[in-house]
């Protein structure tokens, strides 16, 4: 069985701006897919936005049903956390402040809910937000990227 691998990570703010993108083992280049990094980031945002809204619309426990595509409040509806395609698994976490973390991995990786929460709590908050030069909405720097590398490596997701 192949070893579990992280392919790439996207972090978006509440408006959909990509604050951080990092890749390790992307099976197909951006040029073969979306065409540009900006288009790739927009398509990824559109994919999880659509899936999370679709899941919220189908939520059987919701007291009031949302119409498909209707804007929803942060955390409203059921909690979409991942889906698996034939070649990758997409893990998703939305924080109470509206940040969205998307981690694409190989299919054999289990749930990354706790890992994404730790990435937010231990790295985003500790390394980015508490840094003296941090400004909300700005792209995250190299120190954050290095911290992500160390964190995912410690979890065995960056391979040998």
Walk me through the topology.
Elements: E1 6-12, E2 18-23, H1 37-58, E3 82-84, E4 89-94, E5 100-105, H2 113-129, H3 142-154
Antiparallel strand pairs: 1-2, 1-5, 3-4, 4-5
Distinctive features:
160 residues; alpha+beta; Beta-Lactamase; five-stranded antiparallel sheet; 3 helices; 32% helix
- The CATH class is Alpha Beta
- What strand order characterises the main sheet? 2-1-5-4-3
Sheet of most strands = 5 strands, antiparallel
Structural domains: how many: 1
Question: How would you name the oligomeric state of the polypeptide chains in this document?
Answer: single chain
Provide the CATH architecture. 2-Layer Sandwich
Give the distance, in angstroms, between the N- and C-terminal Cα atoms: 15 Å
Which word captures the global form? globular
Q: What would the average pLDDT be, to the nearest integer?
A: 82
Using only C-alpha atoms, the radius of gyration works out to 16 Å
| Overall SS class | alpha+beta
- The name of the CATH topology is Beta-Lactamase
Count of DSSP-assigned helices? 3
Q: How much strand content do the residues show?
A: 15-25%
SSE sequence, one letter per element: EEHEEEHH
Share of residues in helices: 25-40%
Number of β-strand runs = 5
Low-pLDDT segments, ≥5 res: none
Family: Belongs to the TRAPP small subunits family. BET5 subfamily.
GO biological process, one term: endoplasmic reticulum to Golgi vesicle-mediated transport
Protein name: Trafficking protein particle complex subunit
InterPro entries: Longin-like_dom_sf, TRAPPC
């Amino acid at each position: 069985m192949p070893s579990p691998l992280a392919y790439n990570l996207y972090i978006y703010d509440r408006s959909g701006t990509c604050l951080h993108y990092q890749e390790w083992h992307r099976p197909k280049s951006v040029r073969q897919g979306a065409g540009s990094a900006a288009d790739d980031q927009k398509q990824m945002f559109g994919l999880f936005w659509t899936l999370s809204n679709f899941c919220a619309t189908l939520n059987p426990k919701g007291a009031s049903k949302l119409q498909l595509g209707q804007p929803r409040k942060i955390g409203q509806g059921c909690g979409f956390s991942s889906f698996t395609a034939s070649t990758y698994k997409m893990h998703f976490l939305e924080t109470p402040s509206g940040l969205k973390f998307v981690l694409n991995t190989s299919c054999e990786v289990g749930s990354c809910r706790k890992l994404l929460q730790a990435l937010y709590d231990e790295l985003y908050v500790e390394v980015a937000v508490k840094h003296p030069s941090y400004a909300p909405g700005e792209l995250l720097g190299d120190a954050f990227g290095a911290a992500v590398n160390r964190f995912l490596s410690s979890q065995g997701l960056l391979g040998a």
